[in-house]
Amino acid sequence: MPVTDPYLYPDTDVLVNKKGYQNADRLRIFETTRYLSRAITMPTATNSPSALKNLHHHLFQDVYDWAGQYRTCNLSVDGRKGLHPQSIHQSVNAVFQNLNANNGLQDLSSDRFVRAAATHIASLDKILPFRHGNQQVTLLHLAHLARNAGHTFDLSQLDHDQWNRASSQAAVNDERLMTHAIASLFKSGRTMTPDQARRETLSLRDPARHEIQSRIEGATRTLDAGRADSITLKELRGLREELKALESDTQVGTVLRHIDQAQKTGIEKLIVLPGRDGSARDAIYAIGRAAVRSFDLREDQRAAQGIKAEQAHSSSSWFARASQKLSASEGTAPQSNGLKSRGPQIG
After folding, report:
1. In 197-224, which positions are buried (b, 16+ CB within 10 angstroms) versus exposed (e)?
2. 178 and 198, same structural domain?
3. Tens digits of per-residue pLDDT, 112-141?
4. What is the DSSP pairing of strand 270-272 with strand 190-192?
5. CA nearest 58: which of 70, 80, 42, 71?
């Protein structure tokens, strides 16, 4: 029995809209125009579910009556199923409670921000709180988080195909590609060759060791004075483990192996995001992350090219493309019984 979607006009996959357009192309043009107009000035609050809903309402208020409201039906996007409508409110609240518990991802180096932001955005992606416009809202929410944390961010650099693959992987708890996709949006990265990365990593080893020793001494003084709490004790244990790894060359050796691995795949340059306050520890970490990111992105590009090549030679995909062209020329929306996210994407 066909699934009924209350958000669609009967027997179409076109969302009910304020203009009454029942042609997908006309709605897409109208929505994109209004969305871009609203995106010029946007609310900038980022730290609550209401802020997320306000952002959605601001962007889509001219197009849909339900702008800014959580969906009331089940939803699947590109094979990813969103949470049941009854779970949305509580789940979104939990995501933002975690965000605020981490100080809105502020006071983090670029690389550490990227990893934390990937986890946050992946959590929202799994929920799919709105009937439509989830990707647009989460990306702009991400840009606000980055700006409020003091990072220079450029959404125009987004690779949408890569982002869709990243969302699919994050849905099964693999956030690596999403982490790399977010990192690619930073405008403050340094470019270096693998050889330069090796030399800089080795040169940072002693400064990093001195930084850690200084932090250990400070935490130890706090402990000796009887003012240490559980957070200080946890930090002290972590610092001692980090110093041990650095002195045994475990940490630096791991970074050098990542650089070697990237170079062996033909990568000629690494984009290294800035560390925090000139920290040598963060700089070593950032170089290692840059090497891992370059390698993983190269593997993703190869996989994506393989998929495209396979699709290009597939008779079924040829038939699907031909059918889409014929449908488009008739000016009518294709029929669908599934609940899917429709409409324009950013870019």
Report:
1. bbebbeebbeebbebbeebbeebeebee
2. no
3. 899 999 999 999 999 999 999 999 999 999
4. antiparallel
5. 42
